[in-house]
Amino acid sequence: MSSKLMRGTFILTLGTYISKFLGLFYVIPFFALVGKQGVALYQYGYVPYTIFISIATAGIPLAVSKFISKYNTLEEYAVGRKLFKSGMVIMLITGFAAFLILYFLSPLLADFIIPDADEVKNATESVAVGDVVAVIRAVSFALIVVPFMSLIRGFFQGHQSMGPSAVSQVVEQIVRIAFLLIGAFVVMKIIHGDIVEAVKVATFAAFVGAIGGLLVLFWYWIKRRPYLNELLSKDKGTVQISLKEIYKEIFISAIPFIIVGIANPMFQMVDTLTFNKTMVSLGMGLNEANDAFATLNYNSHKLVIIPVSLATAFSLTLVPMITKSYVNQNIKDLKLQLNQTFQVLLYLTLPAALGISLLAGPLYTVFYEADTFGAEILATYAPVAILFALFSVTAAILQGINEQRFTVFSLLLGLLIKLIINIPLIEAYETKGAIYATIIGYLTAIIINLFVIRYYANYHYRLVFRRGILIIIFNMIMVITVFFVYKILLLFLSPEYSIQSLIIIAICAIFGMAVYFYLSVKSRLIYFLFPEQMSSLKRRLS
């Protein structure tokens, strides 16, 4: 794999991880401010927003980056600039339209989320339809800015410049979380407002954060404009393409990534529609069912999604690079990129997922509270992160080789299977049944994607399979080591207390990383996966 791909992946991975970690750790002070009731209301508001924002933006950066990368490869730079200029206007219009739709549909959506106010009130103690409407309307303002911002990110990524996207992403998250926590603190502790007002401020923070990210992108645009104009002066001018043709190509490219963008929310929506009713039918009380649902779909999911950040970074970086190799029919480079991608993905996500599963007890205590049930669900759910990551990356690869139609098919089939088997598996295994249904649904989609990649890219998985076995062996050795360290620590520390849990996690993580790194260096595996980074490290140490 080229150093440019690895460097771009590293930049986006770093930015995505920082953003995700910030998005994870703010939960601790936010939960302390608004409690279970406020967090529940926050989630009710974010359900429709997540789906809307995914539809509005999920395909834009990737589709635009693929389009611009394609024509930049042909030295037709004016085509990409033409898209950028008209796209900014269109994104402003569509973003404002999406805002209006979500704003005025909020009462209907709130009724869908909470169909019976009395029933929900008994379950959540005070959440009402009107509260959900207010929260949805507060968060809907972000739709005005985010699509516009996504287009600019796609433009930079199409020029294989990942820094602007990474930095703007981090700034957006910092501004959002700062506004969210400060705003909630002011409402709850200084002016002594109610929880609904605090959560409205917290959700409106999405709009404020988007403004912060947009300002960063404008700064990068001003800084990089001379270079971009220089490229424009080298334009061959042999391709004449209308705006209609441009947007047709963008729309066709964006559809699969819109679907991929709502994949996770849609799998969660299946649980939303079926989980509580099924659990109640088994004799469980509604409050208990809601608690189990929150443990699975919010608390555990928030932790499990962290390792998936890597897949997101790969998706953003892969599309323009694989498109370039595919357009140039450089099959050798394409296969090298695929080999490196699958190996690095497995190398990084597998230990993260296994680590979360093994240390689920202390992790759950640190972020939420000491809860045996929560730890058990997190331990079961954690390995699903590997499937989330694999699906994102295989979907990006299909986009790069222009076989995105199969992404749509595989995901819809996976969702259909999840929908069909979710209720029977919940009836058989309760909360874990929903996890098993998700695993089967995602596995179905991934297997289809892998077969399509093999057929259309004439790609064989022999090297990935051999290296994968080695990576799995190293992970097993790491897990056994951490397991014994964990058991020894339990003789002196208790995972029921936050500080002691944090100490357990830190010590286990140090031992785990040390063993994993030692095995990787001793076998020279790390030199094959990260040749540029290891060479640079050697030079600095020598």
From TrEMBL:
<feature type="transmembrane region" description="Helical">
    <location>
        <begin position="435"/>
        <end position="457"/>
    </location>
</feature>
<feature type="transmembrane region" description="Helical">
    <location>
        <begin position="408"/>
        <end position="429"/>
    </location>
</feature>
<feature type="transmembrane region" description="Helical">
    <location>
        <begin position="177"/>
        <end position="195"/>
    </location>
</feature>
<keyword id="KW-1133">Transmembrane helix</keyword>
<dbReference type="InterPro" id="IPR024923">
    <property type="entry name" value="PG_synth_SpoVB"/>
</dbReference>
<feature type="transmembrane region" description="Helical">
    <location>
        <begin position="134"/>
        <end position="156"/>
    </location>
</feature>
<dbReference type="GO" id="GO:0005886">
    <property type="term" value="C:plasma membrane"/>
</dbReference>
<feature type="transmembrane region" description="Helical">
    <location>
        <begin position="469"/>
        <end position="493"/>
    </location>
</feature>
<feature type="transmembrane region" description="Helical">
    <location>
        <begin position="344"/>
        <end position="367"/>
    </location>
</feature>
<keyword id="KW-1003">Cell membrane</keyword>
<protein>
    <submittedName>
        <fullName>Polysaccharide biosynthesis protein</fullName>
    </submittedName>
</protein>
<feature type="transmembrane region" description="Helical">
    <location>
        <begin position="250"/>
        <end position="270"/>
    </location>
</feature>
<feature type="transmembrane region" description="Helical">
    <location>
        <begin position="379"/>
        <end position="401"/>
    </location>
</feature>
<keyword id="KW-0472">Membrane</keyword>
<keyword id="KW-0812">Transmembrane</keyword>
<feature type="transmembrane region" description="Helical">
    <location>
        <begin position="201"/>
        <end position="222"/>
    </location>
</feature>
<dbReference type="InterPro" id="IPR050833">
    <property type="entry name" value="Poly_Biosynth_Transport"/>
</dbReference>
<feature type="transmembrane region" description="Helical">
    <location>
        <begin position="303"/>
        <end position="323"/>
    </location>
</feature>
<feature type="transmembrane region" description="Helical">
    <location>
        <begin position="46"/>
        <end position="68"/>
    </location>
</feature>
<dbReference type="InterPro" id="IPR002797">
    <property type="entry name" value="Polysacc_synth"/>
</dbReference>
<dbReference type="Pfam" id="PF01943">
    <property type="entry name" value="Polysacc_synt"/>
</dbReference>
<feature type="transmembrane region" description="Helical">
    <location>
        <begin position="499"/>
        <end position="519"/>
    </location>
</feature>
<feature type="transmembrane region" description="Helical">
    <location>
        <begin position="89"/>
        <end position="114"/>
    </location>
</feature>
<feature type="transmembrane region" description="Helical">
    <location>
        <begin position="12"/>
        <end position="34"/>
    </location>
</feature>
